[in-house]
Design goal:
Order of helices and strands: HHHEEHEEEHEHEEEEHH
Helix content: 55-70%
Structural class: alpha+beta
Mean pLDDT: 82
Number of helices: 8
Radius of gyration: 56 Å
Strand order of the largest sheet: 2-1-5-4-3
Low-confidence stretches: none
Strand content: 15-25%
Shape: rod-shaped
Number of strands: 10
Distance between the termini: 52 Å
């Protein structure tokens, strides 16, 4: 019984341990699947919204710039005539109107064919400077005389640039450049997510922005985080740009840092990345709920299994005990029968011993008289009878002695 109890306890312990281990494995797989699904969903939404915003900006500003140059503002003629004062007055009205609609519009610059700034509407007193050779989008627009889009870094900061060539009576006279703060792209996620953002510039670009910015990322990284809110500095430190799988706890809030939004120039080269740190507190709560649910069902399942096994083992124990009692009862009967057989055998032996003694005594007397008869002078026929009697007597004596 002790052996059976030990076996039962070990079996229950093994089953309980197995169920707990399997529940942990299942919980881990569910959480990993949930994480991957969440990150994939964020990645998909982020890229779709980004592309939609970029396309809508391009379309909207083509129309706005066309209105500025030709239909409403008719600034193309003023630009051709190099009337800087009137050009500024008309363009500034457009600039203020656009600013009210979208505060991230920061730059409107008219440039001549040689790339020099004729008028910066946002900074009217700064003009006449020659184009820096690093301004590829400007040189490409002048060379190709076609509209160009893309992110590019100027002397001080990076903007999304829309550069439109200007024609008057089919004559190319220069271009107008619109600069939009990248925050405009980050703002599109406000409706869907709680997040913080930053820009990471490609280190291969030798710009003054990089030289003036403290390095927030490791030396081994290809990108450098810039223009971030100082309060969020720690959030964007030591990011792994090679894997879009960064998670951080910042101010006790869990964040997933998305690093896969490449900011491309007009030649489709990555000049920077838009970093989005999404607040995943709700997802973490879902993970905690999953853990609690799995734990609850594991405990419930464990209780049911152990209860069933306990009942099964109890039934088995009762059955085994009944069989054991039945066996003991049969053994008692067999012992009694064995005892009776022994008693019977002993009585029989005693009876035979007594009988052999009682028979041997008169038989010995008969044998003695037979010997005496053989010594007497008797006829041959009588002697034959005596010999027969002697043989029978000896055979009988032999049987008794055996």
């Amino acid at each position: 019984m002790n052996f059976l109890k030990s076996t039962k306890d070990k079996t229950l312990a093994i089953i309980a341990t197995t169920i707990i281990i399997l529940s942990f494995i299942a919980c881990d797989k569910i959480i990993n699947h949930t994480k991957q699904h969440t990150k994939k969903e964020i990645d998909t939404i982020a890229k779709i919204l980004f592309e939609e915003k970029r396309n809508s900006l391009n379309i909207a500003f083509e129309e706005k710039i066309n209105a500025l140059l030709y239909t409403i503002g008719k600034t193309a003629i003023l630009f051709k005539n190099k009337d800087r004062e009137k050009l500024y007055k008309v363009s500034h009205r457009f600039f203020k109107t656009w600013k009210k609609i979208n505060e991230n519009i920061e730059i409107i610059t008219f440039r001549l064919k040689d790339g020099s700034a004729f008028l910066r509407v946002h900074k009217p007193n700064m003009y006449g400077d020659k184009l820096n050779k690093s301004r590829k989008i400007i040189t490409d627009t002048n060379r190709l005389q076609k509209i160009q889009y893309g992110f590019e870094i100027g002397k001080l900061k990076m903007n999304y640039r829309i550069v439109v060539p200007i024609f008057v009576e089919k004559e190319y006279i220069g271009l107008v450049e619109i600069g939009i703060n990248p925050q405009n792209f980050a703002d599109i996620y406000k409706k869907n997510f709680k997040f913080k953002s930053a820009i990471a510039i490609n280190k291969k670009l030798n710009t003054s922005v990089l030289l003036k910015t403290p390095n927030l990322s490791t030396k081994k990284q290809d990108f450098l985080v810039v223009n971030e809110n100082k309060k969020n500095k720690a959030l964007f430190e030591n990011i792994n740009f090679k894997e879009n799988n960064n998670e951080k706890i910042y101010n006790n809030i869990p964040y997933f840092i998305h690093t896969d939004l490449n900011l491309l120039n007009n030649a489709n080269e990555t000049v920077a990345k838009l970093l989005l740190a999404f607040d995943i507190s709700e997802q973490k709560k879902e993970e905690e709920n999953i853990i609690l649910t799995v734990e609850y069902f594991t405990i419930l399942f464990l209780i049911i299994i152990l209860l069933v096994l306990y009942i099964a083992f109890g039934y088995y124990d009762k059955k085994l005990l009944a069989n054991q009692l039945e066996l003991e009862k049969k053994n008692d009967i067999l012992e009694k029968q064995k005892h009776k057989l022994k008693e019977s055998s002993r009585a029989k032996s005693e009876f035979l011993a007594n009988m052999s003694h009682e028979i041997r005594t008169p038989l010995n007397a008969i044998n003695g008289f037979i010997d005496l008869l053989k010594e007497e002078s008797i006829g041959e026929k009588a002697l034959d009878y005596v010999n027969i009697i002697d043989d029978s007597s000896k055979n009988l004596l032999k049987i008794i002695e055996d």
